[in-house]
Amino acid sequence: MGQPESGEHRAAGESTLPPGQRLQRGWPVTHYGPVPKFRPERWEFRVFGATADGGKHCWDHEQFTALPFSTVVADLHCVTKFSMLGAEWGGVPARTVLELAPPAPDVSHVMVWAEYGYSANVRLSDFASERTLFATHKDGELLTAEHGFPLRLIVPHLYAWKGPKWVRGVEYMTADRRGFWEERGYHNIGDPWAEQRYSYQEEPGDGPEL
Length: 210
Prior knowledge:
It is built from 3 helices and 11 strands. The protein has helices at residues 61-65, 94-100, 124-127, and strands at 22-23, 44-49, 57-60, 70-77, 82-93, 109-114, 119-123, 133-138, 141-142, 152-154, 167-173. Strand 4 and strand 5 (82-93) form a beta hairpin. The two termini are 26 Å apart.
């Protein structure tokens, strides 16, 4: 997919703390705005934008949760400086979505869309990692509403804001565009191993102009 994956210097599954992080016992609830009410009859997951066939691909809740299930043991690093190590996440691999709804050849980034119009932009290479997962479960249990049920994205090698809760779809993009927090001063890439927390730390080429 072209670009090196953030944090690739770290061995897969290795549980250590990135610089500036502290170990967290338990899982704090952190998000912006209210917790949305899940209505399964209205829920839909969409893939749109620069798809290979030019069309939109949709799954209802029953169809999406019937896709192949996989687990990944991975850490979660919050930009607020807590890290939760060694959680088992279960759900649908991002690579499955890419296979079922392929992007056009010139796609370089995706925008992950969630409830209330929340968004996070991710490089296609990060999204296509074998460890990136649309999670429905943590440690064998369904996610709670506060933690993103029915669906949240887990991108273990990036800060957790790059994996939105309450995900509703993915937009394929041929050029980068900043998401919700990236427009509000957070780093466009978000690699915790490089402490890419804020936009003022960005180097040329890290993202679009603010």
